Structures are given as C-alpha cells and as structure tokens.
Please model this.
Amino acid sequence: MSEHQVALKWELATEGFEYEEFNRSHTLTFQNGLTVKNSAAAGFSGDSDALDPEQLLVAALVSCHMLTFLAYMSKKRYHVQHYEDHAVGVLEKNQEGKMAVTRITLHPKAIFAGERQPDAEEIARIHERSHGACFIAQSIKSEVIIEPVIA
Model:
C-alpha cells in the first residue's frame, strides 16, 4: 500500500464570483515539490495554457499502461528501445446522462532492439496483460481501447 498526495491551491482572482467570470486556474503541488498550473478545460472557461483534469486523467492512464508494459517486456527479456503513444480521451454524456470521460483510446507503439523480437500476437497479449495490471485502469470506469501500432 502507498499514499499519493497532491496539494491544490486556488484563490479568487476576479472581482466577482459569477459562474461566467471566476477564474479556474489553480496549482497542483506533488509530493516531490513539482508544481503544475491546472485549470478547467478551455471549453469550460478554463485556461488553455494550463493542464486540465481530463488531460491529467488520460496522462495518468497512458503513463501507467506504458510503465506496466515495459515491466512485462523486461521480465520476458525483450529489449524495448523506444515507446510512444497518442492517447485520446473522449468527454461526453455517459449512459446516466452525466458528463464523463467515457473512453480512452491508446495507440502504443514500441520499437525493440536485439535479435529477440516479439510478434504482433505477443505484443497484443502483453498490452492486454498490462491493461489488466495497470493501477489507473483498474481505478476508472472509462472504457479503455488499446490499438497497438506495430512497427
């Protein structure tokens, strides 16, 4: 078991507190001291130069999936040289009519070095195992679709 702490700080920076005018920007400070500017998404009166919660959710999932994939590949003695992904989260109304990130699609691409190269079936199997073991994937209700890009 482990704990993961984030400190959030927001202060009113506008004259009034009407919905259309109050500022959404705030800071998130992580346990290691790293501070990032966060806000609502631009479409919800947020600051487009800041990260938004939806982006952070997608980032947490894609990062967790990659780290789990790399761990499995390392244990199977495959040498991953390069990994990239272009993850897409969709914010829309869910079946209950509430706004939610309903699905996140991952497009992982791994490049392997050395003589031992996994085939497409092995890569897909490890992605499936990675999804099942990813802490973040197991913590969210969003549908997660994995579409590996085979190099």
Summary: The mean pLDDT is 96. The two ends are 37 Å apart (CA to CA). The chain has two domains: 6-44, 53-146. The first helix runs from residue 53 to 75.
